[in-house]
Structures are given as C-alpha cells and as structure tokens.
Amino acid sequence: MSEALPTGIGRPATRALTAAGLTTLAAVAQRSERELLALHGVGPRAVQLLRAALAAQGLGLRPG
C-alpha cells in the first residue's frame, strides 16, 4: 500500500510531510498524531483528513 497523500490536506501540510520524508499513506501510518502535529504546516484539519484516508486503506496512525 503506497497510496499518495490526499490532495485535500493543503499545500503547507503536503510540503511539511514531504520534507519529513512522508510521501505515502503507509509512511504517515508510521507516525503518531503528536508527531504529525509537530510538523510546521500540519494542523488538526490535515490530521483529520489523513486519518480518514488511512482508514479507507485499512491503516491508522501509530498510537502515542
């Protein structure tokens, strides 16, 4: 599963995730919500959209 990041998360969040090496949903699933929110440009709305995209693929964020 190497689904691309959802486009609806916004450009700042996409740039932040890409800069952190998180270019696929599978990579995002290896991080916790706290880790994602610590990235400049990733806010609660982006995390909510990422959670929904992950759930659609049978994935979820790491606990913590």
Automatic annotation (TrEMBL):
SUPFAM superfamilies: C-terminal domain of RNA polymerase alpha subunit
Listed name of the protein: DNA-binding protein
Species assigned in the record: Deinococcus multiflagellatus
Record lineage: Bacteria, Thermotogati, Deinococcota, Deinococci, Deinococcales
